[in-house]
Write a structure and sequence with these properties.
This protein is α/β, with parallel strands linked by helices and 190 residues long. 34% of the residues lie in helices and 27% in strands.
């Protein structure tokens, strides 16, 4: 789990403004703290508006985290909007052996993006079915949060649900349902 020189597990969240990537990173960090780990959530955006690409980052460690800059290469990349796969060279965001979680139902994504371990889930469909929408767009961050918790191997559904309850004020049970479905339904893309 924690394998680099800083003994951290680094996550990059890539989404669009309004999808909730920054919120997901914050809740991931909070859940990691509940597991007894040290964690940071680092948002990185300028004056972007809804729909513009947005990055957020997590650093998680068993030790105090001294490095507070943004993550350049992660152990895990979480892609909330599959159209961003066309805009970026995804493999450049990952350390050797890094994994990707994508909001997509497309098979064989590992060949397309040049990464061996790619995990997929239909986060948009889940959010729509559960009724998590904002201005007509599905809020995919909660299913993606659940998937990231599982693929990282760090978090379980209970700590994720606890962190959601502490962070979200509206539609709490629907958000927890979305996290649980993302956790349960994420699969390796093959």
């Amino acid at each position: 789990m924690l394998r680099n020189v800083y003994n951290t597990f680094d996550i990059i969240w890539l989404g669009r403004g309004g999808q909730g990537g920054v919120t997901a990173a914050r809740i991931f960090a909070q859940a990691a703290v509940h597991k007894g780990l040290y964690a940071l959530a680092i948002p990185f955006f300028g004056a972007e508006r809804r729909g513009a690409p947005v990055f957020a980052y997590n650093r998680v460690s068993r030790e105090v985290i001294r490095k507070r800059s943004r993550v350049k290469m992660g152990d895990l990349l979480v892609v909330l909007d599959p159209s961003l796969l066309e805009m970026y060279d995804i493999a450049k965001f990952l350390k050797n052996g890094g994994k990707v979680v994508v909001n997509s139902t497309v098979k064989d994504l590992h060949e397309k993006i040049g990464v061996k371990e790619v995990y997929c889930l239909d986060a948009s469909g889940m959010a729509t079915e559960i009724g998590l929408k904002l201005a007509g767009f599905p809020l995919v961050n909660m299913p993606m949060l659940g998937a990231a918790g599982r693929v990282s191997g760090m978090l379980d559904k209970d700590v994720l649900a606890r962190a959601v309850r502490e962070s979200i004020e509206r539609l709490v049970e629907k958000n927890i349902e979305a996290v649980n479905r993302g956790f349960d339904e994420v699969r390796r893309c093959v």
